[in-house]
Design a protein that fits this description.
The complex is a heterotetramer of chains A (309), B (237), C (80) and D (337). Chain C is mainly alpha-helical and 80 residues long. Chain C has 2 domains: 30 residues, no CATH class; 49 residues. In chain C, 80% of the residues lie in helices and 0% in strands. Chain C has 4 helices and no strands. The radius of gyration of chain C is 21 Å and the shape is elongated. The relative contact order of chain C is 0.09. Chain D has 7 helices and 17 strands. By secondary structure, chain D is an alpha/beta fold. Helices cover 26% and strands 30% of the residues of chain D. In chain D, strands 1, 2, 3, 4, 5, 6 and 17 form a 7-stranded mixed β-sheet that branches. In chain D, a hairpin with a 2-residue loop joins strand 4 and strand 5. The longest helix of chain D has 19 residues. The chains are: A alpha/beta (309), B mainly alpha (237), C mainly alpha (80), D alpha/beta (337). Chains in contact: A-B, A-C, A-D, B-C, B-D. Chain D: It comes from Acididesulfobacillus acetoxydans. Chain D: GO terms for molecular function: 4 iron, 4 sulfur cluster binding; metal ion binding; oxidoreductase activity. Chain D: InterPro entries: FAD/NAD-bd_sf, FAD/NAD-binding_dom, HdrA-like.
Chain lengths: 309, 237, 80, 337
């Protein structure tokens, strides 16, 4: 059960700083387009900034950069939201954990904050630590009453399975709005929009990206993803809903790679929660950008027909 | 193999704690209960990988074994161990810090080498780590031009970070020494399995054998916590 | 040929590796700003200043804040 | 005539204290917030390390107490307030028939313990799957003959809520190792076809015959002991997948189980801090009552004239609670003469 006391703490903002994610922008643009569009439909104006860069999580955890390098990068990105006096909304679990953890660390360590601020001052910025970082799925859950009112394309007859993603749950042991071991808010959202939730065994397993293992230890990564996909196929959902573009990319692309390598036939469309909400709220087809999806395109078309374009 | 038990160094762990910006803490609280390994996605597919054993070696000061192991580089960074840990030990941060330490000792550069391109060619150049570049021909055929899809979705065809933004992260990178760090990695090609000698192939258990990565003299890593796993090795054995 | 790390690195104790690691981390995470470190930062700042007019203006605004640190670093070096 | 002693809690420690006071010429006022005496002991089926009929023992002890002349038993009664000093306390009791004021010389706190509800342990699917039960529910199932039939696999999970800083308590709950062995034996006796797996971190069998009892479970009843804390329990169809590490081998293992029993920790009785506030005695960081001196004065609270007995001071087994009840009774008698 989502912790309602924490959900209530999320403000209902009029504007929010929309933090763009690399994977969402460059591999699955539908996440970005739908994220902003559905927030707009729900009465929250997303504010973007061209100066916002990657959160820096990837280069840090790929060990190409030490935390000394990524800490100021995090502070810089957060300071962009602070300049506008807004909270931040992210679409990616990686961004969420990275901004949250490092932000939290700086807020509780004055010395580090001062040294980070020295570097930011050189470029005419400063970091206070006043803003909060929310995941877009958390915001959707906060605005679920508005979503229920504004559903244009009810997801009747759509069987959806969920995948939360490790960096939201593991990283959010104490900061996620839901229980890190058995979350259920995405299920609630799906049912709210008229869909059916399909349980499957490997629900809380890692997608298998393993951060850098998809590049360095591909065998391990594919083996783990295959376990997950086997379990998903057993339950046979129409859609697999994720809330992290990185999981999205892994689960979507590895299906094709496994089909190619091993002659299997995994065909489950993967959708980000922003795309699903966008679909239900009646965001135009172009903005959903399903053309960027690789696996289960036929099935996705069927879902489209059922929902009614 | 008989291993002589050395006096573990209390000072190492104690002095390590505050230095790592407070990220690494409380490993001494480990109960060795194995809850971390039980839920670990990497351990489920890798016989020798075991977070519990790495924590034990760390607390008892067997640093050399941790640093020279292949296992250190097999973590998935999923944070699942942290989320179930009864003592709130943040193991992924241990791995992160110890990978830095291992690189300082000359291990694991061949892994980092493969990722360095993301930082140098994408992050520092464009401000975005993952580019639109696609290697997989199937994906290229199916998806086609991402720019076109972006335009259809009402987004600018290319996501651009402003020149000022790129300059700012470049300065952060320069000032914090990240650029210099990456320059160490770049440059020299890795030896791969096709070009290595029989001698090298005999020693190599899984990874391509590096001679040198960039300006760094690298060392061989071993499976210090068990046998290498995976389907490939099951067949080879 | 060595089969495991004990054979390959057996001569070297963990203590030596630990001490090297410690001094590496100590340097990496140090918040102090000695002169040597400040000098290393200079090229990056120059590069940033060369980027454009706006960056130069912002960097110049920082100079008053930097001077006392420079002084402290220089004097610190003389004392030490 | 001797002055009265108030005994708070009608579990085995409280019953013993009342008996001993009455048998030695004192008068005891035994209050219990539930409708009947027996406490947690009455919820058990068997005792350990000797598998004796728990219900029979409790009934016998309650009967003895009820027949003794010097004991007045007040069920559904709570303590409302307490004033005064050692030898002369004025206590106000909330009984079903209204308030009642009493003069007592000494007070024995035998408030017992509470089996922790492992609702925080969502990784064990507790509260979500009907096949994941606490050990207390397992006792109930055993008493009602609802244990799994046929070749079922039952997994016992140690240290749920104890030795856990993140979700439970840091202390060791002391009796879980032994009662899990008891449950495994109960299962094997009721259904020899069943397979029992016990996941443990360390086996703490601190008591006479306890080690032999657990060895008996392993040797005679073929209960499989695996060292490792269970990481998660996953629902898969009508089965449960139990994931853990066999840390003696160093490999993750998975057991397909039909029933998972969580050995939930003994926690301080509910409202122990409020009770301590009324009495003016100290509790420790968890809410257990603090003894004046742990070694030779284990039953003295931080306030003179108020004595502690049983598992409201720390997790303890029945024998220890009985011994402590007797000790508290003799301390109380000194004041009531």
């Amino acid at each position: 059960m989502p912790r309602l006391d924490k959900v209530a703490q999320i403000p209902k903002p009029e504007q929010i700083f929309f933090f763009k994610s690399c994977v969402a922008s460059n591999k699955y643009p539908g996440i970005e387009a739908c994220g902003t569009e559905s927030l707009r439909l729900l009465g929250v104006e997303p504010v973007e900034s061209e100066e916002q860069t990657c959160c820096g999580g990837f280069v840090t955890f790929a060990n190409v950069a030490a935390p000394t390098a990524s800490m100021p990068a995090v502070a810089r990105n957060l300071s962009l939201a602070e300049e506008k006096n807004l909270d931040t909304c992210v679409v990616c679990n990686g961004c969420w954990t990275f901004l949250n953890e490092f932000g939290h660390f700086m807020n509780h360590n004055e010395e580090v904050k001062a040294s980070v601020n020295m570097m930011l001052n050189m470029m005419g910025r400063s970091y206070e630590g006043s803003g909060q970082v929310f995941h877009i799925a958390e915001l959707f859950y906060r605005l679920k009453d508005d979503i229920a009112k504004k559903v244009k394309r009810p997801l009747a007859g759509v069987r959806a399975a969920t995948h939360y993603g490790c960096h939201y749950l593991g990283g959010g042991k104490y900061s996620a709005i839901d229980d890190a071991q058995m979350p259920s808010y995405m299920e609630e959202l799906i049912e709210l929009m008229g869909g059916t939730v399909v349980p499957y065994t490997a629900n809380r397993e890692c997608c298998g990206t393993g951060f850098t293992q998809i590049i360095n230890g591909k065998d391990l990564s594919l083996e783990h993803t295959q376990r997950k996909l086997d379990s998903v196929r057993e339950a046979d959902p129409d859609l697999l809903i994720v809330q992290c573009p990185y999981c999205h990319s892994q689960l979507d692309r590895v299906q094709q790679q496994l089909n190619f390598r091993q002659g299997t036939d995994y065909q489950t469309p993967v959708l980000h929660i922003a795309q699903l909400v966008g679909m239900a709220l009646g965001v135009p087809e172009g903005k959903l950008a399903f053309a960027a999806h690789i696996s289960g395109r036929k099935r996705l078309e069927e879902v489209w027909d059922r929902v009614g374009r | 193999m008989l291993e002589k038990v050395k006096d573990w160094s209390d000072e190492f762990y104690e002095s390590f704690k505050p230095i790592a910006m407070g990220f690494v803490n409380e490993a001494e609280k480990c109960l060795q209960c194995g809850k971390c390994t039980g839920q670990c996605p990497a351990a489920a597919v890798t016989p020798s990988y075991n977070p519990r054993k790495i924590i034990r070696d760390l607390v008892f000061g067997n640093v050399k074994r941790v640093l020279s192991s292949v296992e250190l580089w097999q973590c998935f960074f999923c944070s699942g161990c942290y989320s179930v840990c009864p003592m709130d030990i943040n193991f992924p941060f241990f791995v992160f810090m110890f990978r830095l330490a291992a690189m300082n000792e000359g291990y694991g550069w061949e892994d980092v080498k493969q990722l360095e391109g993301y930082a140098e060619k994408s992050y520092l150049k464009d401000g975005i780590t993952v580019s639109t570049f696609e290697r997989n021909p199937y994906v290229l055929d199916t998806v086609g031009d991402i720019g076109k899809i972006r335009a259809e979705a009402g987004l600018p065809p290319e996501r651009k970070v402003s020149a000022r933004g790129v300059a700012e992260i470049n300065m952060i990178s320069d000032l914090s020494g990240m650029t210099a760090f990456m320059k160490q990695i770049g440059g020299v090609e890795l030896l791969d399995c096709k070009s290595c000698t029989d001698e090298q192939a005999k020693r190599c258990k899984r990874k391509p054998m590096p001679s040198k990565v960039g300006k760094v003299k690298t060392h061989y890593r071993f499976y210090n916590y068990g046998e290498p796993g995976g389907k490939k090795h099951a067949q080879a054995g | 040929m060595a089969e495991n790390f004990m054979e390959e690195y057996g001569q070297e104790t963990s203590r030596e590796a630990a001490e090297r690691t410690l001094s590496y981390f100590r340097e990496l995470f140090s918040l102090e700003m000695p002169l040597g470190r400040m000098m290393k930062m200079m090229p990056g700042m120059v590069k940033f200043a060369m980027h454009g007019k706006d960056t130069r203006v912002d960097l110049l605004k920082f100079v008053p804040q930097m001077m006392p640190m420079m002084k402290a670093a220089v004097s610190g070096k003389r004392e030490g | 005539m001797a002055k009265k002693t108030l005994i708070i809690g009608g579990g085995i420690a409280g019953i013993t204290a009342a008996q001993k006071i009455a048998q030695n010429g004192g008068t005891a006022l035994l209050i219990e917030k539930e409708g009947h005496l027996g406490g947690n002991f009455a919820k058990l089926t068997y005792t350990f390390p000797v598998l004796a009929d728990a219900k029979g023992i409790v009934t016998r002890e309650i009967k003895t107490a009820e027949e003794l002349a010097g004991i007045e038993i007040l069920p559904r009664t709570t303590l409302e307030s307490c004033r005064g000093e050692a030898g002369n306390f004025t206590v106000e009791l909330g009984t079903p028939s209204g308030r009642r004021t009493e003069q007592v010389a000494a007070i024995v706190v035998a408030a017992g313990f509470h089996y922790m509800e492992p609702t925080a342990y969502t990784e064990y699917a507790y509260g979500r799957s009907a096949k994941v039960v606490t050990s207390l529910e397992f006792e109930k199932m055993a008493a009602e003959g609802r244990l799994p039939q046929g070749p079922a696999r039952v997994v016992f999970v140690h240290c749920v809520g104890s030795r856990d800083k993140a979700k439970g308590y840091r202390y060791c709950s002391k009796i879980c190792c032994s009662y899990s062995a008891k449950h495994a034996i109960m299962l094997k006796q009721a259904n020899p076809e069943a397979k029992a797996y016990v996941f443990y971190i360390d086996i703490r069998a601190l008591g006479k015959g306890y080690e032999e009892f657990i060895r008996e479970a392993m040797e005679k009843y073929n209960v499989r002991y695996i060292r490792g804390r269970v990481a998660k329990v996953i629902e898969s169809g009508d089965k449960l997948l139990v994931r853990a590490e066999d840390s003696l081998i160093g490999n993750p293992v998975e057991v397909e189980a039909d029933l998972v029993v969580l050995a939930s920790a003994m926690e301080p009785p509910q409202g122990s801090r409020a009770l301590a506030g009324i009495l003016g005695i100290a509790t420790d960081e968890y809410g257990f009552f603090r003894e004046a001196e742990a070694n030779v004065r284990p039953c003295h609270s931080s306030k003179e004239g108020i004595f502690l007995a049983g598992s409201c001071t720390q997790p303890m087994e029945i024998a220890a609670a009985v011994a402590m009840g007797g000790l508290a009774a003799s301390e109380a008698l000194i004041l009531s003469r």
